Amino acid sequence: MKHPRLKWFCVDSKQINSQRMYSRFVVSRLKHGQAQTIGITIRRALLEEVKVTRISHARFENLNFAHQYVTILGIDESPNEILRNLEKIVLRSSIDCPLEASIHIHGPKRVTAADIDINSPYITIVEPTQYIANIYSPINFSISLKIERSRGYFPIQDENNPQKDSTYLLDAVLMPVVNVNFNIINPYKYEGVVERPETLILEIWTNGGISPKKALLEACENLIELFSIFLYPDEKDILLEEIEELRVIKIGRILNA
């Protein structure tokens, strides 16, 4: 029996606003049960395995205060409120290495994400109008920032903030994929024909820091890399970085056999 050729394509894609992107994908001609397997696996990978670029550290350069909840003369927000506003800033990046950024303002001024000086063409701010703080007095306001790309959830305990060099770690839920839905068009339920293929409808919403298509590709790459270890049963302890090298060696042996 000839197996059906798999197909996938994007049927809808739109920018809802600066911090919401949406796409709908169709994967067709799947065997019975494969649509649910792919849908569940991809949904989990999209929500947990896709990296996000974020501000991870902040250090107040010229402000002296006892703790992050204190009121600072000349600024409407406490340091803690400023840190929480920095956590909300969505960044788009094409590189993985950490970078430095900064804010240097002389008040009075309403400080937004557009005031962040990022000395790199590889990182852009998704929403430049994102509010950070309001300075109502003629004071200098300077913050050094560190930008990183990572995945997962990083809760920060107050007793660990600040660090020894007065740098504050920023709490973050690193989920550039906001929501994922999938539906299965299953002809078996209606026609009872076992050989008819299934169709998977996959909907993805992101925070604007990454497109749904790019998030889908990254999630699939992460899954392939994760399961690649089972292709090498003789290797009981292997780094993911070594998998590609082993794959090349294996292909070379096959070609030379």
**Count of helical stretches:** 5
Count of distinct strands: 15
Lateral arrangement of strands in the main beta sheet: 7-5-10-3-12
Major sheet size, sense and barrel closure: 5 strands, antiparallel
> Helix fraction?
10-25%
What is the CATH domain class of the largest domain? Mainly Beta
Number of domains: 2
The shape, in one word, is elongated
Return the structural class: alpha+beta
Query: Order of SSEs, N→C?
Result: EEHEHEEEEEEEEEEEHEHH
Mean pLDDT: 83
| The CATH fourth-level homologous superfamily of the largest domain | DNA-directed RNA polymerase, insert domain
The CATH topology annotation of the largest domain reads as: RNA Polymerase Alpha Subunit, Chain A, domain 2
Percent strand equals 35-45%
Which spans of ≥5 residues are poorly predicted at pLDDT below 50?
none
Overall description:
By secondary structure, this protein is of the alpha+beta class. The protein has two domains: 7-50 and 183-256, 2-Layer Sandwich (Gyrase A, domain 2), CATH 3.30.1360; 53-174, DNA-directed RNA polymerase, insert domain (RNA Polymerase Alpha Subunit, Chain A, domain 2). It has helices at residues 34-48, 79-87, 188-191, 212-227, 240-256; strands spanning 7-17, 20-30, 52-60, 91-93, 99-106, 109-112, 117-118, 123-125, 131-135, 140-150, 152-154, 167-169, 172-174, 177-185, 198-206. The strands form five sheets. The chain has a five-stranded antiparallel β-sheet with strand order 7-5-10-3-12, with helices on one face. Strands 1-2-15-14 form a four-stranded antiparallel β-sheet, with helices on one face. The longest helix is centred in the C-terminal third of the chain and has 17 residues, at 240-256. The two termini are 30 Å apart. The model has no long low-confidence stretch (mean pLDDT 83).
